[in-house]
Design brief:
The complex is a heterodimer of chains A (113) and B (112). With 113 residues, chain A is mainly β. Chain A contains no helices and eleven strands. The radius of gyration of chain A is 13 Å and the shape is globular. Chain B has no helices and eleven strands. The termini of chain B are far apart. Classes of the chains: A mainly beta (113), B mainly beta (112). The interface between A and B is medium-sized, with 27 and 29 residues.
């Protein structure tokens, strides 16, 4: 079953912060985050593994709460280049480590000057 | 630089035609994936291949088949295209395990 992302869309001014959530109804082993800019391929941001890990990438970081089966992506002091659609991809426990993911429906982020 | 290429960026076909979408990766990856992307539905997995000639159905395999005769190439086949298969199709590849996927630029298919 697809994870649910919230919000579906968000508009920010440059310098503002945003949080994107990804919730699953299944127990998770890992959560992957990707960003897709308009007209381009999705690009990998980070992977979070079971264990409540928090990772960072420039001013973009994420956390993974395995008890809540939820991950959050934090965008700090947003820049125009952060605009795009963000997808979480989840791997359920017992998935045999195949690399197969179930992606959420996406969150569209627009950063305005 | 790693690369996943797809045979066409845009494709227009007629209902009932057989359609082939090709994907090639140059990273010697074991895994290859075909996704369909529709507004509000995100990326949905059609088929997955973890080795040459090996495949596994994804979440929405109906109306599609795949072929992987060589490690670097993964083809998506629409046996008889229908209008509800109008969509953006994305190919991706990865190594085995919990690692990142590399996506191709996508093929926007319109079925008239």
């Amino acid at each position: 079953q697809q994870p649910v992302q919230s919000p579906q869309a968000v508009i920010l001014r440059e310098g503002e912060d945003a949080v994107i959530n990804c919730s699953s109804s299944k127990a998770l082993y890992s959560v992957h985050w990707y960003r897709q800019k308009h007209g381009e391929a999705p690009v990998f941001l980070m992977i979070l593994l079971k264990g409540g890990e928090q990772k960072g990438h420039e001013k973009i970081s994420a956390s993974f709460n395995e008890k809540k089966q939820q991950s959050s992506l934090y965008l700090t002091a947003s820049q125009l280049s952060y605009s795009g659609t963000y997808f979480c991809g989840t791997e359920g426990i017992g998935s045999s480590n195949t690399g197969k993911l179930i992606f959420g429906q996406g969150t569209t982020l627009q950063v305005k000057p | 630089d790693v690369k996943v290429t797809q045979s066409s960026r845009y494709l227009v076909k007629r209902t009932g035609e057989k359609v082939f979408l090709e994907c090639v990766q140059d990273m010697d990856h074991e895994n290859m994936f075909w996704y369909r992307q529709d507004p509000g539905l995100g990326l949905r997995l059609i088929y997955f291949s973890y080795d040459v000639k090996m495949k596994e159905k994804g979440d929405i395999p109906e109306g599609y088949s795949v072929s992987r005769e060589k490690k670097e190439r993964f083809s998506l086949i629409l046996e008889s295209a229908s209008t509800n298969q109008t969509s953006m199709y994305l190919c991706a590849s990865s190594s085995i395990g919990r690692v990142k996927q590399f996506f191709g630029p996508g093929t926007r298919l319109t079925v008239l």
